[in-house]
Design a protein that fits this description.
Blueprint lengths: L4 E3 L2 H9 L6 E3 L17 E3 L7 H13 L5 E3 L1 H7 L3 E5 L9 H11 L4 E5 L4 H14 L3 H22 L6 E8 L2 E3 L4 H7 L3 E2 L9 E2 L2 H7 L3 E4 L6 H11 L3 H4 L2 H4 L3 E3 L2 H4 L7 H12 L1 H7 L1
Helix pairs in contact: 5-6, 6-13, 13-14
Protein name: Iron complex transport system substrate-binding protein
Organism: Limimonas halophila
InterPro entries: ABC_transptr_periplasmic_BD, Vitamin_B12-ABC_binding
Length: about 300
Amino acid sequence: MPRRIVSLVPNATEIVAALGCGDRLVGRSHECDHPPHVAGLPAVTSARIDSSAASAEIDAQVKRTLGDALSLYDLDRGLLADLRPDLVLTQDRCDVCAVSLADVEAAVAELTGGARLLSLAPARLADVWRDVERVAEAIGVPAAGAELAQALARRVEAVRMATAGRPRPRVAALEWLDPLMAGGHWVPELIAAAGGTDVFNTPGAPAFFISPDDLAAADPDVIVAMPCGFARERVDAELAALTHQPWWTRLRAVRTGRVHAVDANALFSRPGPRLADSAEHLAAHLHPEVMGQQA
């Protein structure tokens, strides 16, 4: 049973904690911040891009770095060796989200004396719930994993049932605002469960860039701004910058006051236990009259 776990992605960290095994974590990624106590753990990764820059500049930095065939993140190999993990958790779904799997595989093989490496790559909600079970199996608490996965799935299904039969607003989930990006993977499923219809994407498909003309042509009833990795305050600031754009002010959702900023970092960017919270949060925006009755 692993006793020393290093998690290189926030969703894995949150899964370990939700399983009641947070005390086994000995190292984390620089982005792991939930539950709050994990911030006291040593960070084994760091970013090569400036996340405080404007969205357009972050996008440019990412494209330049990937274009040069470089990783967006550094892995502190010395610290990883010092932490002596017996399990390392990472992901291989997104090159923009964490240290590359190849870099992690090489470091684990060379430095950790045979630690197990478990990589997560969820695309849909069922994959996320299965990852909860996979992590639980890896850390020796399979029963807790099955119980947690089932509880999370039941919460999302409860939202689906509560919004069933209601009018389904057409929703644009924006995973980036400059340039615009339509959200993907588990986001369309969350929108469907919350009683809406995603105007751009389908469950499991990756996010993709769109133009202002694309958004204007779709003219959704509701816009949910969820720039990847941004907290609510940052999203509010990003949206404020768009109010000066004529194409933005002409959108139906903007005119009717149905643009919602959400805490993407906590609720939508991370494929972990808090996606159940995300479904409930979305439903409260799309069908507040129903969700109010559920409270």
